[in-house]
Amino acid sequence: MLTIYHNPRCSKSRETLALLEARGLTPTIITYLTTPPSADELRVLKQKLGFASFRQMMRSKDELFKELGLQEPSVSEEQLLAQLVAHPALLERPLVVKGEQARLGRPPEQVLEIL
């Protein structure tokens, strides 16, 4: 099963979806701003991405990231996770999941590694 955590307003997200569709793939599309992932789902995504920190899954250049002080080293992993749950717009996009692997579509071609 192939899944994309998608934001239709994001050009990289649209490019990644188009890249998948051009290869004849029809991923399950999760519009994560309207159907946000739970804390448990985010934990699984982090593991599948192979990331050490939730911070790696976050839009660190986003104004909200800075306003919430999430760049501070003193912010714990549980605090980062809580902010991702509370503010799904902080999730870096797009995320593509296939089986036990996931990739961030920045650049979009990076998702090809798991296909």
From TrEMBL:
CDD domains: ArsC_ArsC
Transmembrane annotation, as ranges: none
Keywords: Oxidoreductase
Superkingdom per UniProt: Bacteria
PROSITE patterns per the UniProt record, alphabetical: ARSC
Catalyzed reaction equations: [glutaredoxin]-dithiol + arsenate + glutathione + H(+) = glutathionyl-S-S-[glutaredoxin] + arsenite + H2O
InterPro entries registered for this protein in UniProt: Arsenate_reductase, Arsenate_reductase-like, Thioredoxin-like_sf
Enzyme Commission number(s) from the entry: 1.20.4.1
Membership in a protein family: Belongs to the ArsC family.
Protein name (Swiss-Prot/TrEMBL): Arsenate reductase
